[in-house]
Amino acid sequence: METVYYGTDDGQLTEAARVIQRGGLVAFPTETVYGLGGNAFSAAGAKAIYAAKGRPSDNPLIVHIADTADLGRLAAEIPPAAHKLAEAFWPGPLTMVFRKKPEVPDETTGGLPTVAVRMPDSEPTLKLIRLAGLPLAGPSANLSGRPSPTAWQHVRDDLDGRIDGIIKGEPCRGGIESTVLDVTGEGELVILRPGLITPEMISMASGLPVSYDPAVIGRPEEGLVPRAPGMKYKHYAPKCPMILYSGSPENVLAAIKKKQLHELAKGQLVMVLAYGPEKKAIAPPEVMAREFFANLRELDDAGADLILAAALPEGDSLSFSLMNRMLRSAAFHVEVV
Ligand code: TXA
Ligand code: MG
């Protein structure tokens, strides 16, 4: 099919909204990463999304809304804490998991009795949702297994010819996907995927204790089954292997240099992702997060055979969220030095 590229003026968004109403798929900007949108109430729409991405269909989709009132169309129950969190963080990078209404098809939720919902912080996308009059089921708009797209050009590179349209919005400010939070538990909130909204922020706004799902912290070989099914797949990965080095800044730099020379001697093109301890002073975690996926794509395009990077030092929650993506990009290959 021919993919149509839309601008962000009202006329173009109206056309894109019609495509969604007719059952088509349109990629849309958000503050985190680009999403691939279809009608969340349509089983066929959800199936088309899985097919376009080449994604396993047991991996549930996040549903995007433009007004908090629309939550009532999707969620069977809205706990009081969810109201507080919506008030505090929407529009923004927080996804909440609710018990679903029967109207939400199993195809959208990967067969789960729950539905994940968020309100993205992007004016054109909020307009698109209102014009379509439909909540948008939207995973990240990349081919399954590739780094998430943080600019419309990344979506074009992965999905041109496979979807009906792409909205040419701004590059994403956040750079890593939303925090996914289970709000269905009694009195406790559980983070299923770490992101830009931290446990401290959630606890402060809700007044409730917040924990991480054990699978967020552990490694896949520990046999922990993530409750966000998307976290179990190989994810966010560049085309070539990636290795993370963990240790003192001096040891990490020395190990990276040694590995680079060793591989260069074999004719391999080795690239170092510039998030070393030596860059820490000039790159706060917000900036690293914004650029991470785009950097992986650049290194891929430059033909890297191997990517080396320094593991992030333990510290703040945002570094923890980014490290969660880095570990998956490196297929959990960490050298302690
Ligand atoms: O920032 C984001 O969240 C982006 C933008 C486009 O909004 N979307 C995104 O979607 O990252 P996706 O499909 O790539 O990741 C959705 C994550 C997966 O890990 C999935 O398993 C989890 O959310 N998820 C969705 N519905 C769920 C549910 N009902 N219960 C538990 N986890 C769920
Ligand atoms: Mg994704």
Give a verbal description of the structure.
This protein is α/β, with parallel strands linked by helices and 337 residues long. Helices cover 34% and strands 17% of the residues. The chain contains 11 helices and 15 strands. The protein has helices at residues 10-21, 43-53, 71-74, 80-89, 123-132, 152-159, 199-206, 214-217, 249-265, 285-301, 317-329, and strands at residues 4-6, 26-28, 35-39, 62-64, 94-99, 114-118, 136-137, 165-167, 179-182, 189-193, 210-212, 242-246, 270-272, 306-310, 334-336. It has an 11-stranded mixed beta sheet with strand order 1-8-2-3-7-4-6-5-9-10-11, with helices on both faces. The longest helix has 17 residues, at 249-265. The N and C termini lie far apart (50 Å). The mean pLDDT is 92.
